[in-house]
């Protein structure tokens, strides 16, 4: 940890991280690298998206069933950020492989939704699209609100095109992905009748929104006290992005004065992070070290070994992976039979396999208060 507090020049930091094998799915000059690589993405944008996601009752049911967020919050945060970093910045093979394994991980998240009375399945394309769009929308929204501001019309068009391209890593049909700001707004508006502020959703948001759950469990008391003002500021910043109807559903009471203060403080803080690689990498290493290792070469402009990009479909074909919607049908069928046919718990096979791609399931991260 201390090595990331040591001041280094850009050149010094570039020598600290190895290059990627290739430029992944976007590469230098892409709007995705510009927006996702900004410091507003990995706390504000991410926290906004994962809280809003819980308004989908199917997702909330899946999260409660898995228990991972409450029992291993720092690990869950780091693993999810690791995957998002692969999607945005990773080389083509490890990202395509991780996406393939993610289908097996999500095959565990199936069951009966107590709110809707229907079943839920994390691999369901509509569920995946909801997660995908809340993430890409939230990352851009926070970039605009707390970062450099609005993209040009040409950049925004490219951003949503890249959003659709990255959807090929999920079980989503890319043809269903909105490709403009107006289309995204329409998509989110059409979701409103399906949203539910269930007890499970509100409980998860109450748990996540203070943001201190993302801190490593071994962080000292002095360390927690030192970062507490920053965590408070970030939490208020996330709340400042919620529209009124979402605040009402979450039970978030934050007025316009606090909103304005949160915007000013977060704009200044993230401008400082943007200019200081030392501060930027310290915070990234604190919250999600695996994600930092993936994102840093792109953020620093380290040339890839092979300066090429591909689409996810091209990578899947090259490396022999099925399209996610068609991946692992036998395994998914066995999981379905275990849960719905035999009433058993799903297998952890995919979850265990994922550790080499997203990071370990750290037993030391278990929260005693959540496990009690």
Automatic annotation (TrEMBL):
ER-bound oxygenase mpaB/mpaB'/Rubber oxygenase catalytic domain residues are 33-257
Q: Region labeled Disordered — which residues?
A: 332-372
Bias type Basic and acidic residues, positions: 332-348
For this UniProt entry, the molecular function terms from Gene Ontology, in alphabetical order, are:
oxidoreductase activity
Domain of life (superkingdom): Bacteria
Q: A Pfam family name for this chain?
A: MPAB_Lcp_cat
The name this protein carries in UniProt is: ER-bound oxygenase mpaB/mpaB'/Rubber oxygenase catalytic domain-containing protein
Name its species.
Streptomyces nanshensis
């Amino acid at each position: 940890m201390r090595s990331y507090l040591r001041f280094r020049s850009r050149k010094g930091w570039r020598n600290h991280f190895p290059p990627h094998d290739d430029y992944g799915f976007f590469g230098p000059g892409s709007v995705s690298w510009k927006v996702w690589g900004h410091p507003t993405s990995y706390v504000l944008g991410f926290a906004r998206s994962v809280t809003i996601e819980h308004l989908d009752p199917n997702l909330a049911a899946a999260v409660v069933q898995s228990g991972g967020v409450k029992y291993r919050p720092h690990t869950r945060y780091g693993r999810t950020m690791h995957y998002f970093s692969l999607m945005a910045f990773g080389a083509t093979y490890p990202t395509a492989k991780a996406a393939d394994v993610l289908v097996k991980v999500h095959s565990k998240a199936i069951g009966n939704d107590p709110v809707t009375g229907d079943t839920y399945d994390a691999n369901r394309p509509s569920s995946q699209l909801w997660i995908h769009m809340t993430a890409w929308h939230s990352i851009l929204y926070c970039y605009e609100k707390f970062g450099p501001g609005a993209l040009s019309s040409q950049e925004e068009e490219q951003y949503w095109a890249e959003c659709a391209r990255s959807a090929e890593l999920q079980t989503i049909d890319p043809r269903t992905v909105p490709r403009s700001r107006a289309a995204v707004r329409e998509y989110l508006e059409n979701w409103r009748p399906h949203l539910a502020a269930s007890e499970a959703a509100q409980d998860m948001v109450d748990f996540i929104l203070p943001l201190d759950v993302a801190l490593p469990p071994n962080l000292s008391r002095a360390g927690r006290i030192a970062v507490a003002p920053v965590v408070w500021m970030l939490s208020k910043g996330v709340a400042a992005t919620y529209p009124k109807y979402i605040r009402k559903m979450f039970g978030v009471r934050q007025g316009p004065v606090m909103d304005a203060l949160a915007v000013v403080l977060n704009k200044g803080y993230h401008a400082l992070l943007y200019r200081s690689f030392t501060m930027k990498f310290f915070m990234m290493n604190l919250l999600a070290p695996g994600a930092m290792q993936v994102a840093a070469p792109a953020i620093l402009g380290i040339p890839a070994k092979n300066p090429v990009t591909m689409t996810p479909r091209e990578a899947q074909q090259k490396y022999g992976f099925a399209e996610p919607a068609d991946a692992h049908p036998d395994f998914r069928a066995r999981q379905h039979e275990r849960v719905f046919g035999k009433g058993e718990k799903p297998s952890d096979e995919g979850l265990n396999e994922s550790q080499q791609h997203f990071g370990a399931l750290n037993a030391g991260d278990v929260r005693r208060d959540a496990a009690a």
